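note to self — DONT lose this again. spent like an hour looking for the file last time. sequence + predicted structure for the chain T wanted, 246 res
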Amino acid sequence: MKKPAPKKSTSRTLFARLFGPSARGIAVEKSVLTGYAQAGGAPVCVIGTCDGTYVDNAAALRLAAHVIDCIEKHPKTPIVMLVDSAGQEPNRVAEMLGLASYFGHLLSCLELARRKGHKLITIATGQAVGGAFICYGMFGDRIYALDSASVGLMPVEAMSAVTKIPVPVLRKLSKTMPSLEFGAKPFALLGGVEEVWSAKDDVPARLARAIAAATTEDNRAALGKKRGGRRLALDIAKRVLAESAR
């Protein structure tokens, strides 16, 4: 009896959608991805996570090591960071071993890459939640998201545990406050996502344009004001800078 063909990995399908045939250059180990591909005919370095995994100490080290490899062997090659993670590893041992320091090391490597001329582009492809999103995804020069992505900093249940505000109250507030609502579009209103890409879009072309247009200027507060999700952040930042310059 002929065995059925194995199902194609969802992650591999996504990589092919983003990078075409060059996605073969991306390796996946325990839901952590590293490798090289092409966007718009030009090489890119790829790091990230898939399958909604948690990011632990070992994962942070693997991602940082690949960033260093890119800096050393492929100067100024854009780094595309794919985020599909449920957050940082909820493990006491990981915390005791200094998980925050591992994240800090990863961020330091990415900052070195930026200073060496590598553009940093983030794409939220699935879950982009909490510490895992903060430790590399939010560090991009520009952040994009697929419309199916779930983007946010803290689930309302966790927020309730910290603030002692009942979950039903937070859920009601989330209907009118984008900062409390999960999703690509609410985060775009805040300016945290540059663009939301739909299934109908030519994603490889959009990625190529995103890389070409990326700058290190932080435009998130300006976008948040323009889109109505964060009306005060830009003006407050300008006032603080003006006062500090006196």
